[in-house]
Amino acid sequence: KLIESGSHSWSSPSNIALVKYWGKKESQIPANPSVSFTLDACKTTTTVKYKRLEQPNSEFSFDVYFEGDKNEAFKPKIKTFFKRIEGYLPFLKEYHFIIETSNTFPHSSGIASSASGMSALALCLLTIERDLSIPLEVTEEYFNKKASFLARLGSGSACRSIEGDLIVWGKHTDIEGSSDLFGSKFPYKVHDNFKNYHDTILLVDKGEKQVSSTVGHDLMHNHPFAQERFKQAHNNLSRLINVFETGDLRAFIEIVESEALTLHAMMMTSLPYFILMKPNTLEIINKIWRFRQETGRNISFTLDAGANVHVLYPESEAKEVYEFINNQLVVYCQNGHYICDRIGFGAKQL
Ligand code: PMV
Fold first, then answer.
1. How many separate domains does the chain show?
2. Domain boundary among 145, 163, 189
3. Per the domain annotation, does 347 fall within a domain?
4. Whether residues 161 and 28 fall in one domain
5. Domain Mvd1 C-terminal, which positions (predicted)?
6. Together in a domain, 21 and 54
7. Is the CB of 40 under 6 A from ligand 1?
8. Measured from the CB, is residue 205 less than 6 Å from ligand 1?
9. Number of neighbouring beta carbons within 10 Å of residue 336
10. Are 215 and 183 members of one domain?
11. 42 and 179 part of one domain
């Protein structure tokens, strides 16, 4: 269809991996499968306005506005994304795009916006494709799969942000429907213990990431422990199937904390090597362990490729754990800043 102009808006959440994706092959194919909680409060809102060009361009034509201001810094990443998805969205060079984007979390919070940002952008572009194509009955399942497929080409973990609340990405023999190409809902029973699970993100270091994830994933090439690590991720995901079914929070804690520490262990043992935890990261981890030992509360932590700590706990223990966070952990946060988030249900069209 020949459409001159239009506009679409989506908001898309961030996600936190329980079994980590670290290491990739060509075309954003993960070296191992991963699983994540979709978040709720941490999200990106993106509007894409499109206007037909007089003549198709040889280059992509777009402007980016971040939180109201014209932004040049995001353009190279978006251009790379456009290049990768051009074959699946062939209209990209026929239109000029204005991409307006903002985050609910502070830009300099050390929280990566690539998952929420790239998934929101993928969804806007896919909705534009729907405007331009001959009306075809597309099921929601197909739409979500394609959105996730496209988002993966922007940033691997972004493919886990389209839906909620528990998303698997990467082929795993025990998980029906799992694929390297897109994220999909965890297909088996999930115990009520995991309903409304909390994630309080303690902002230990709000600085720019020391290691970009592109560089990070590359470190797994020729990594001496790579093969063992990939095997371990498969095993941990297998174990989680039973944990989710039975609601075994102790086993959940063991797997999730071990995954977080292994991610950092991989970084410490690659060449070049990095230490991304800060002294306060370790202070927090030790405090969490002590509190768990003393009170029996099912509190645990996970980490991304940075110093911030995600504190995970079930809804039924939220009051006590939240008090503990406030009384004992907030002192380790930069300017006392933290974000209260919880498990969420995916992107929304606005
Ligand atoms: O999506 P990327 O390429 O930014 O990689 C994300 C990697 C981790 O956040 C460290 C782990 C994960 O599975 O999200």
1. 2
2. 189
3. no
4. yes
5. 201-329
6. yes
7. no
8. no
9. 11
10. no
11. yes
**Residue 50 scores a pLDDT above 80:** yes
Ligand 1: which of 116, 160, 304, 309 to mutate, most ligand atoms within 8 Å of CB?
304
For residues 322 and 329, what is the distance between their CA atoms, to the nearest angstrom? 10
Query: Do 56 and 156 lie in a common domain?
Result: yes
Nearest-atom index, ligand 1, CA of 263: 10
**Can you give the residue range of the structural domain that contains 201?**
193-342
pLDDT digits (tens, 9 = 90+) for 227-245: 999 999 999 999 999 999 9
Which among 16, 19, 21, 39 is the best mutation to test ligand 1's pocket, defined by most ligand atoms within 8 Å of the CB? Answer: 21
Nearest partner of 341 among 22, 50, 42, judged by Cα: 42
Residue 320 counted as domain residue: yes
0.80 surpassed by pTM: yes
Q: Are residues 197 and 185 in the same domain?
A: no
Burial of 81 (0-12, 13-18, 19+ CB in 10 A): buried
Ligand 1 site, residue 21, Cβ cutoff 6 A: yes
Ligand 1 centre distance from Cα of residue 275 (Å): 17
Contact between residue 163 and residue 39 where contact means Cβ atoms under 8 Å apart: no
